[in-house]
Write a structure and sequence with these properties.
The complex is a heterodimer of chains A (303) and B (275).
Chain A lengths: L3 H8 L2 H35 L2 E2 L8 E2 L3 H40 L11 H8 L2 H11 L6 H8 L11 H29 L3 H9 L4 H12 L1 H16 L3 H6 L11 H11 L3 H32 L1
Antiparallel strand pairs in A: 1-2
Helix pairs in contact in A: 2-13, 3-7, 3-10, 3-13, 4-7, 7-10, 10-13, 12-13
Chain B lengths: L2 H31 L3 H5 L14 H8 L2 H32 L5 H13 L6 H10 L6 H5 L6 H12 L3 H9 L4 H9 L4 H17 L2 H6 L8 H14 L3 H21 L1 H11 L3
Helix pairs in contact in B: 1-14, 3-14, 4-8, 4-11, 5-8, 9-10, 11-15, 13-14
The chains are: A mainly alpha (303), B mainly alpha (275).
InterPro entries (chain A): ABC_transporter_permease, MetI-like, MetI-like_sf
GO cellular component, one term (chain A): plasma membrane
Membrane topology (chain A): Multi-pass membrane protein
């Protein structure tokens, strides 16, 4: 890299130099706004997560990792566990359903080409509105789910006051809302597989399962990794349905990391704990995004 | 029965079941929106509406400033999307076409937004907005959303793949760099812009967390926030039918856009995963 610099400078002609001003002008809005609204806040977050002070961020004093300890003690540990459980369930369900439906839509059966629309609708309509449907469906006593349960002779479940069912309810909502994205991504990936190879395999008598197991699945590995990363990031940042459906309750059973940041930062005004959790959320996302960059980098090398 | 027919029957059945399950909550919302409240809270009442209370929809509309909330959402989503597309296209173009000192560093800075999820930094961002006196303003809603790492990345990829000869020919004809960008290359990017634009627009329209920290007055809130406020008011009054009517009001415009722009949305989702 160092040895390339002088050559690069020599290569820059007068014509290049004429364009410098324009180039800086073009990149300025994006770079400046990224600095002001992403990088500066991140630095503030890291700095303040090591300090204690009031909500205005003034009169700070250094406390080392105490905010992190406080955060973990004040329900933060539980929150990280809930976030992990939610994310794992969400990723598994949305990816399995996404792949399954993409395979069905890709099965070359007449009349199914236009069928993608129903799967993208939950993804693109406002989540607050659809979460409200969920709270109606899962309402105690008169909600449709409880009416079905009692109709089947089973016990009714109070989804709002029991930890396990509350978490299941928000996972189901997240899955319903998001799996369409994985349908689209897997379908796009399936369409890029070489058709002649697939057809040759069917002529050779490979059944549907064998074709999937030995040909499509291995060829989809890169796509699966990418979809895994995107879905994990989405799961880690779950917020809206928690806000609308459970407010993190009952007793923290559905409090995700982002809801913790919001609740401690804006409702309980404990910036220290919120900053510590925010920093942790950033670091976890960074590891996941790092994986994605590494994968994209490898693909660029190949190209 | 021949094997192909069995195969088709299985595929149709599974797909039909999936479509029914996915669409059911929305159908349920529409049915509940026009029921009487008595029918909703009675666990023994029939599931299909016995009487159709179409007036629930205007009632819900009249109980809260939905017109204002829609107007705010349109302003926010349209301006933020236009800003993201413009800033992303300019930066992507410069990174792809020009060689200038500090390009690598600036490109890393521009993309760093992709590595810093907004959700992790909401507390300091709210503080910056407060310091700027931008809380409860349109600029506070719009400006922090304009820098788009995704837009910059995708437009750079796009312009890297655009034919260089077009610009060189125009340059020989004496066209300025600005004119080459605007009249030669920007029009080429129109299809990519449409796909990215619709996805960004829907994301901005549905954004709940950012408006939640940036604005809190009834006058400045967006539809999603207003709907959450409306829900808590109507829950205390146990007006469950009006909650579903309001959800219907919030969903229908987006639903129409989604159906009309289906192809672009599908393309945009694929672009958005940077694949």
């Amino acid at each position: 890299m160092v040895s390339r610099r002088p050559r690069a400078a020599a290569r820059r002609s007068r014509a290049d130099r004429r364009t410098w001003g324009l180039a800086y002008l073009f990149v300025a809005p994006t770079v400046l706004l990224t600095v002001v609204f992403s990088i500066v806040p991140l630095v503030m977050l890291g700095w303040r997560s090591l300090h204690k002070g009031n909500v205005f961020g003034t009169s700070l004093r250094f406390v080392g990792l105490r905010n992190y300890k406080d955060m973990l003690a004040e329900g933060g540990g539980r929150t990280l566990g809930v976030t992990a459980e939610y994310t794992v369930a969400f990723v598994l369900l949305t990816m399995l359903l996404g792949l399954g439906l993409a395979l069905l839509l890709n099965a070359r059966v007449p009349g199914t080409r236009r069928l993608r629309a129903p799967f993208i609708i939950p993804l693109v309509v406002p989540a607050v509105a659809t979460a409200l449907i969920w709270s109606n469906l899962f309402a105690p006593r008169f909600g449709l789910v409880n009416r079905l349960l009692s109709g089947l002779g089973l016990d009714e479940v109070d989804f709002m006051s029991r930890p396990g069912p509350a978490l299941a309810m928000v996972v189901l909502f997240g899955t319903w809302q998001f799996f369409g994205q994985n349908v689209i991504l897997y379908l796009a990936a399936l369409k890029t597989l070489p058709q002649d190879v697939m057809e040759a395999a069917s002529v050779d008598g490979a059944g549907g399962w064998q074709r999937f197991r030995h040909m499509q699945w291995p060829m989809l590995r890169r796509n699966t990794l990418l979809i895994l990363v995107v879905t994990t990031l989405t799961g880690l940042q779950t917020f809206t349905q928690i806000y609308v459906l459970t407010s993190g309750g009952p007793d923290g059973a559905t409090r995700t990391a982002l809801y913790y940041v919001y609740d401690d930062g804006f409702a309980k005004f404990d910036a220290g704990r919120a900053d510590a959790m925010g920093m942790l959320l950033f670091l976890i996302s960074l590891v996941v995004t790092g994986l994605q960059i590494a994968m994209l980098g490898r693909r660029d090398d190949r190209a | 029965m021949p094997r192909i027919l069995v195969h088709r029957a299985v595929v149709y059945t599974l797909l039909a079941a999936a479509v029914l399950i996915v669409m059911f909550p929305l159908v349920w919302m529409a049915l509940t929106a026009v029921k009487s409240n008595g029918q909703i809270i009675n666990p023994a009442a029939p599931l299909w509406p016995t009487e159709w209370h179409w007036s629930n929809i205007p009632d819900a509309w009249g109980k809260a400033p939905f017109a204002r909330w829609f107007a705010n959402t349109v302003v926010f989503a349209a301006a933020a999307t236009a800003g993201q597309l413009a800033a992303g296209m300019l930066a992507g173009y410069a990174f792809a076409m020009f060689d200038f000192p500090g390009r690598r560093l600036l490109f890393l800075l521009a993309l760093s937004g992709l590595m810093i999820p907004f959700s992790a930094i909401i507390v300091p961002v709210a503080q910056i907005l407060g310091d700027l006196h931008w809380l409860n303003t349109y600029q506070g809603l719009i400006v922090p959303n304009i820098a788009s790492g995704l837009g910059t990345f995708l437009f750079r990829q796009f312009f890297l793949g655009a034919p260089r000869q077009l610009g060189e020919a125009a340059r020989i004809d004496g066209a300025s760099e600005l004119r080459i960008f605007w009249q030669v290359y920007a029009p080429l990017a129109r299809p990519a812009t449409a796909a990215l634009g619709i996805i960004l627009f829907l994301q901005n329209w549905n954004n709940f967390l950012f408006p939640l920290i940036a604005v809190n007055t009834t006058k400045m809130q967006v539809v999603s926030q207003g709907l959450a406020v409306f829900q808590s008011q109507m829950t205390t009054q146990t007006q469950y039918n009006l909650i579903m009517s309001a959800s219907l009001i919030a969903i229908v415009p987006v639903l129409l856009v989604a159906v009309a722009a289906q192809r672009h949305i599908v393309e945009g989702i694929t672009l958005g995963a940077v694949d």
